[in-house]
Amino acid sequence: MKISIKYPLALLLGLLLCTGVRAQNPTPAPQQREPLAVTGATLHVGDGTVIDNATLLVANGKIEAVGTGLSVPNGYRTVDATGKHVYPGLIALNSQLGLTEIGAVRATNDQREVGTFNPNARALIAFNTDSQVIPTVRSRGVLLAQATPEGSLVSGRSSIMQLDGWNFEDAAVLADDGIHVNWPNRNSYNWQTGDLRPNERYDEQVRELETFLQQAIGYCQNPGEGTARLLKFEAFCEAVNGNSNVYLHADEARDIQAGVLLFKNIGAKPVIVGGYQAYLVTDFLKRHEVPVILSSTQALPDSQDDAIDQPYRNPALLAEAGVDFAISHEGYWQQRNLPFVAGQAVGFGLDYEKAVQAMTLAPARIVGIDQDYGSIATGKSATFLIVSGDLLDMRSSEVEEAFIDGRSINLDNKQAELYRKFKEKYRRETR
Amino acid sequence: MTHCIRPLLLLAFLLSGFALSAQTTYPYNGVYDEPTGFYAFTGATVHVSPERTVENATLTIRNGKVESVTAGGTVPRGAVAVDLTGKHVYPSFIEVYGDYGMPEIEGGGRRSRRDGPQMESNTEGAYAWNQAMRPETDAARLFTIDEKKAKALREAGFGTVSTHHHDGISRGSAAVVTLAEDSDNEVLLKRNAAHHLSFDKGSSGQDYPNSRMGTIALLRQTYLDADWYGKKSREETNLSLEAWQNLQSLPQIFAVDSWQDALRADKVGDEFGKQYIIRGSGDEYQRLEPLKASGATFILPLDFPETYDVSDPFAADLVSLAQLRHWERAPGNVAAVDSAGIPFVLTADGLEKPTDLHEAMRKAIKAGAAPDRVLAALTTGPAQLLGISDRVGTLEKGKLANFIVTDKDPFTEKATIYQNWVQGRAFELKDLDNLDLADAYDITVGADRFVGEVSGEPGSRKMKISPAGDTTSTEVNFSESGGVLTLRFRPGKEGGFYRINATPQGEGYTGSGRGPDGRLVTFSATPRPASDGTREDDKKKKEESEEDRKPYASRLTYPNIAYGLPGHPTTRKVLFRNATVWTNEEDGILQETDVLIENGKISRVGKSLSAAGAEIIDATGMHLTSGIIDEHSHIALLDVNEGTQSSTAEVRMADVVDAVDENIYRQLAGGVTTSQLLHGSANPIGGQSAIFKLRWGATPEEMMFQGADPFIKFALGENVKQSNWGDANRIRYPQTRMGVEQIFENYFSRAAEYGRAKQAGEDVRRDLELEALLEILNDERFITAHSYQQGEINMLMELAERHDFRVNTFTHILEGYKVADKMAEHGAAGSTFSDWWAYKFEVNEAIPYNGALMHEQGVLTGFNSDDAEMARRLNQEAAKAVLFGGVSEEEAWKFVTLNPAKMLHIDDRVGSIKAGKDADLVLWNDHPMSIYARAERTYIDGKEYFNRTENESRREAMLQERNALIQASLDDKNKGGKTQTPRGNSRRLLHCNSENH
């Protein structure tokens, strides 16, 4: 493709401006060379347990050992984390981080493809490692994110990305971990009247989805044989064979049940995303071994009559019922508040370590990266945080150091830089 | 029907003094032969008026008017006698809110953003600038007889209608017409019967107003303009304003959608010396006291909601407790309004078809309304309201002969209307059969015996016949004429027909006819008693009256939705013991301290306080703070943006406060006690703010923060230049930041000129928009300016300095950190988000350190929500000032309490814990800025509006109530009641750029 430059002067000026301020993301961190020991920490394992006064040994990007009373071998850089907390790196599920930069600027939006069925669309491709939003999120403890497409009946496939990459290829931890399906709405909302009316096309839309799935199953038995290559069906093969997840976005209890049955019947692995009313069908979810990625606790109740703190309580209700669940938060820049979304649930009855687990090991298991990520255990990737205090409470949630695969991540970001810039302005004025 | 025609007509005319035929202006083709319509109706129970009933009456009418009603009187000579023995005669009903005979409303309506703006009126001619103001509409001119609709209305018992064109905010004048069909000239009784108004702009496609507050502002300005137009030597001719003035002496009827709307309308009326008659919404029972205080007469609708189909347990979740409650209580509205002493009349407007009136009216009576009050509300009430009592409403001498003939009392029983007489002309609706048929007869025809069963209503009776001892029945064709009954039937599927003529004898009938074989047969029918001795109707009645006694399953709360309070909270005397007290005063954060509140105020702060009679709350381990103040909120509002013009300084958010927003309660649970309800950011000069306390359960008026300074919303940047509105919206000025500045420059210059003219005593047209701006120039009104980028922030401060005023507060102000020094110097406060960014281009350089940097530079800094969700946890947002930029916790806490109080100039009343200040307090279970903190109790003016423990028990009770109503709904459905599909009512969550498009 030939790029014609119409305004060379403007381009030049633009480049000059860009270099005038360092509006670039920090350089990705190099591989771990020096082994590391973190001592004296309160270590939240991620599996629901906590180790007081823990020692954590890290070498070659992996966790060598974790426990109390471990001796630190020679040659290890030692971080005294006494009084501090260590957590696994947080995993932000169902996020548009890297897929959009400025919501209202269309040119920066790459999360929503046109058409009803987009299983073939891959969020991975649109994931912008150079998004200036990413470092602001990473610096609050989120080290992995599920880049997730939105919209339509089938939005596309998500991928699990680590948040310190040069490009989408080396940032991908797990490509195409599953397909996102938005269960049709039973009710359509009239913005002018505030009425929620039955969606007259609901049955039709469900049938459309069923038909599509049947076609896909047929196609996937002999992919590409005797027919033209059909990308949309092909994209579903991993999911209908049960090798990748089907992320079923549904909030109402009825939809959760209908959707789960549909996908279970074809041998797929459904995961509920949203799950506002999952607490009403916990036995069903357990019976079918379906995990739930809960949408943000920091939300309003869905209806006037609901408990005023229903979203705050949902995680505790699922924990109590024994349903596997993860906690998520909406959007892209908002992901930096993920720890507080979990903290909110703790304020409304969720066990603290369970809340940590819901952002670490639980999401890792759901998406299928728990062999390497999600908890601090020997042999796993050294992806963790050192926090001055309680990560889940903004009063003390200062992330001091963060590591992805043992690489020490630069926690600086555009916003911190602007802060310094204007601190300097005012410092000069008072001089 | 038996007609006894007396021949001496001429004599009768002479005796009664009527010699002339009715005089009309139009010519008559042929030999004049219109009879005078001299009738005498005998034997009926005549309900002359709601107060007076005459049994076995003789009613005479002539020339379309009532002559007399006498008990057992004789039929005057010359009158056509009509025997109505056993029947009831009522004055026919008057529809006070009809659109009978009006043209269809054409096209228009709300436009979508995609269409682009319509800035000007499409009405051609020298009329109002605004297309929704149509006072020139004259129903009398538009009226033409509509036979189909007239018939439908007569079937429902109406004889007279006050009709108007239901289109626009001012809908012009109504005309009173009868439902006769002779000529438009004769049926039109009165022109200019009333002026009709509404909050609905109807077919107008003009952008302004696109909000309720815009509508109210337009009404206000129209009153002022008309006044000015009447006084001033005219600079323009305006036919609408002339028409408006002519309407002002008429009854003013205002249509509303809710009890809150009724109060809104009444308030506007009060401002201009108008007492509106309110065309109500059917929910008046929810708040009777203020409605009574309004002094308005209500026109009540009878369109009660159908039962919700709640068969599917999850689909039923869509139906709210509020909807279920209204379903149960709506029929009781009439009774509730009446017993509150609020004057009312009734309308069939809103019913699917006019005849639904009867069932609705009986439902209302079953739910407690007095039948005579219902009759009055359909007859004498409307007549008085419309000033036509001299012509219709009762059957007193001289009134129009407008009446209906029924078999029973239609208010308590399912009755049949046989005839509806309008202006002395009969409209037969059903055969006036005087047949008093029994439910069943033993019939003998020749040697054969049968049983005949009668069903149906008078006029449409049916009979089935079956051989005695057999159950297979066949239909009998029968008709009656001149007292002779003619029957035709075939007893079996095969064989021939019987044809019979019979005449009454005793309780039954005898006669003769021909059998299937053509031979003469004799016939007799004698009534047979029902098997258990009671009639079906009686049984039904008994069941119904048993149902009557059922008490309501629903509660009535303040407001009447989920989480409404059982009553208004009372002022308490409370001693909080041993709390960590965040004073926001010099004392800072006090450990183990007591606080006493009484009479709505903070009375004492100290150690080991005691107070006689105080409720003692052990607050050990808990934190007591002043209530959170949200400087930027859009909850509890019907609309947020007018935004259709670059300035809408005339609109007032106080006009559209919605006291029934559940978010008020949810935010009390987050510790919020005061909020500034702001206009949105769709235009550079928005509307006037409302500052309110979250007094859950009160009326909008009662929620207002009394004595607070007036504020106004300004906005800058992407929203006001419509950057993200799509390509159709490139017309309204301004479209750039350059234009934004010029709008301000222009408006402030005009406001200054306006002020000078006023001061010079010139006869200026009062302009509410310029007055609001003039108040800014006079430091009587203060600006909260939505702003993002440093350039525009600088611009507004410079502009303000040029015009010699100060920008009070910049809200959002996400680049405030870049110009914090200038803001401090100007004296502008900054009310920002803790950490929002990246959602549009102008927030690309927003940083979460913004609050800290502004604070460090001496800017009065706060965090606001602009969001119904976030407002529930502003305490956590305050903590982000600690996290980003290291503000001390004590100072950060002021970001959501004292500092916004200062920005709103209410810090003498709220914002800190100090003796003498309002007792607006929150008791937290934990450090208030911790993510784990929950507000346990929230007080406003010393009244407890939220209590977490009570919240739990209230929710439990609510679930039980909800279930009881669902069970009642299912019961109703099982009995065959009509149902509707559940339809939720989700609240529109409004933000700065929420639009009504």
TrEMBL record, chain A:
Protein name per its UniProtKB record: Amidohydrolase-related domain-containing protein
SUPFAM superfamilies found in the cross-reference section: Composite domain of metallo-dependent hydrolases (SSF51338), Metallo-dependent hydrolases (SSF51556)
Keywords on record: Signal
Keyword ATP-binding: no
InterPro entries, per the entry: Amidohydro-rel (IPR006680), Metal-dep_hydrolase_composite (IPR011059), Metal_Hydrolase (IPR032466), Metallo-dep_Hydrolase (IPR051781)
Sequence ranges assigned to domain Amidohydrolase-related in this UniProt record: 347-403
One Pfam family here: Amidohydro_1
Organism domain of life: Bacteria
Secretion signal span: 1-23
Gene Ontology terms for molecular function: hydrolase activity, acting on carbon-nitrogen (but not peptide) bonds
UniProt keyword Signal, yes or no: yes
TrEMBL record, chain B:
Boundaries of every Amidohydrolase-related domain copy: 336-418, 780-932
Source taxon at top rank: Bacteria
Keyword terms: Hydrolase, Signal
Single Gene Ontology MF annotation: hydrolase activity, acting on carbon-nitrogen (but not peptide) bonds
Secretion signal span: 1-21
SUPFAM superfamilies recorded: Composite domain of metallo-dependent hydrolases, Metallo-dependent hydrolases
Annotated InterPro entries: Amidohydro-rel (IPR006680), Metal-dep_hydrolase_composite (IPR011059), Metal_Hydrolase (IPR032466), Metallo-dep_Hydrolase (IPR051781)
Biased composition (Basic and acidic residues): 533-551
Region spans: Disordered: 455-477, 501-555, 971-997
PANTHER family: ALPHA-D-RIBOSE 1-METHYLPHOSPHONATE 5-TRIPHOSPHATE DIPHOSPHATASE (PTHR43135)
Entry annotated with the keyword Flavoprotein: no
Protein's recorded name: Amidohydrolase
